[in-house]
Write a structure and sequence with these properties.
alpha+beta; binds zinc ion; seven-stranded mixed β-sheet; 13 helices; Immunoglobulin-like; five-stranded mixed β-sheet; Neutral Protease, domain 2; 22 strands
Length: about 450
């Protein structure tokens, strides 16, 4: 037979993860396909959870575990390693950051980097199959591509991108919308009426997103909804993660009635992050500005709030933010997000930029070109590229996509200069006057685009 040499074919490393009935102990058998990697790595918190690791069978080479790195030497081809993880989940307080290993009622959220020891380097095309052996009645939710029940391919997102694997007694729910599939896990078994309500809420949010350019921005989305005991709104905390695939995690308070969930911006905001590729730290004006714009516009387009309410929310956001951190440009504020309250200048300054760009594109093209069209171009060419973009490159790409200089020109004026982005003039051109906190529609030179911005596509 004349075949390709073995080194040219992609490797599929196999992980078998046996979860015990406490959900906290994982017995992981890793078998490499071909040569073993030189090392396996996990997050720097992984040593807290690792109980033991050994070659299988012992004596086939050398293994040295050093903090979050396991160094492998002298292993034969197709070697195996076995390790045991005893997770130490958080049980106190409430989650206020990204992925973490946390007990939620009877179920468990795990930060993948706490327990998954992965090859430090993988060649292009190499992949990992993860097969879960679960106790009866337990399901698994992962951001990875599912190939069979409990079996996933992790793909090649950079290993430092965080993600969550959830385990529990949930029935996985699939919500299909144009261009995408949402794989929803509801943690700690909400009662049926609440579960149905939360499902309607996620579906409405996803459909609202589709109004931006006719398709959901990602093909597969892991959605994890967990209850949270604290906070004064339906969704006190939520975030997006990208490791292994796109995911959003929402912490919800089921005591709020359905209409309050439908009016809440969090789900649409988090999903709107998916219009963007993974961006550098410090580019918060773009990372948060776009979702802050669409949390209003997409909600109006999807019928979750009336257009007047969207205009009101945006005006209020701009008006409040303009007086915060006036010594910083929006760009600079984005690099100092931790400072008290400064995030508002970043989120709303970025949103004002998006409104300005959307309107400018419409004005220049007589209404035939929009911000949504520019994002659709990005969706088709390069949304899934596996590296961190710089905002400047993304802005340049938006200009290319539209054949204009709208995005880079506005970037210089609104993001790189000190005054808060000009939004009063935009409202005037759109024929929107705010009286006593409420928008009144009047004449304006670009008033024709006022409805188009908030209308379903
Ligand atoms: Zn956000």
């Amino acid at each position: 037979m004349f075949g390709l040499p073995a080194s040219a074919s992609a490797a599929l490393h196999r992980y078998s993860v046996t979860v015990d009935s406490s959900l906290e102990q994982f017995d992981v058998m890793v078998c490499f396909d071909g040569p073993a990697p030189r090392s396996l790595v996990a997050d720097d918190t992984a040593m807290l959870h690792l109980a033991q690791m050994q070659l299988q069978p012992p004596g086939i080479g050398q293994l040295k575990v050093n903090d979050w790195r396991a160094i492998l030497t002298g292993l034969p081809e197709d070697a195996c390693i076995e390790y045991v993880v005893q997770l130490r989940p958080q049980t106190n307080g409430v989650q206020m950051g990204g992925p973490e290993t946390r007990r939620v009622g009877r179920d468990l959220l795990t930060s993948i980097g706490d327990w998954m020891w992965r090859p430090a380097e993988m060649a292009e095309g190499d992949d990992i199959e993860v097969r879960f052996e679960l106790p009866p009645g337990i399901s698994v939710s992962a951001p990875w591509r599912q190939v069979a029940d409990g079996v996933f391919r992790t793909g090649a997102t950079p290993r430092e991108w965080p993600g969550v694997v959830a385990l529990g007694g949930f029935e996985p729910i699939v919500i299909a919308v144009d261009g995408g599939r949402l794989n929803v896990a509801m943690i700690d078994s909400p009662p049926p009426a609440l579960r149905d309500m939360l499902e309607r809420w996620i579906e409405r949010a996803a459909r609202s997103l589709v109004t931006v350019y006719g398709s959901f921005p990602v093909e597969e989305l892991q959605v994890v909804i967990a209850p949270t005991p604290r906070g004064e709104k339906p969704v006190p905390w939520a975030y997006v993660s990208r490791g292994g695939g796109p995911a959003i995690h929402l912490f919800a308070q089921g005591r709020y009635p359905e209409p309050e969930f439908m009016r809440d911006w969090t789900a649409v905001h988090e999903m709107s992050h998916l219009f963007l590729p993974y961006l550098e730290w410090g580019d918060a004006w773009l990372v948060e500005g776009l979702p802050t714009y669409y949390q209003n516009v997409a909600m109006a387009r999807g019928g979750l709030i009336p257009p007047e309410e969207a205009w009101r929310r945006m005006y209020e956001g701009f008006d409040f933010a303009k007086n915060i951190g006036g010594q910083f440009t929006v760009y600079e504020a984005g690099q100092r997000l931790g400072r008290r309250g400064l995030y508002r200048r970043v989120y709303w300054g970025g949103a004002a930029y998006m409104l300005a760009a959307d309107l400018r594109l419409r004005e220049l093209s007589g209404g035939s070109q929009t911000l949504g069209d520019a994002l659709h171009e990005i969706h088709q060419c390069c949304l899934n590229e596996m590296y961190r973009w710089r905002a400047e490159d993304f802005v340049a790409r938006l200009d290319t996509a539209t054949g204009t200089a709208v995005f880079s020109e506005l970037f210089e004026v609104q993001i790189r200069q000190r005054p808060f982005p000009e939004y009063e003039a935009l409202y005037e051109r759109l024929g929107i006057r705010i009286l006593g906190g409420h928008p009144i529609f009047v004449e304006g030179e670009s008033a024709e685009y006022r409805n188009a911005i908030m209308a379903p596509r």
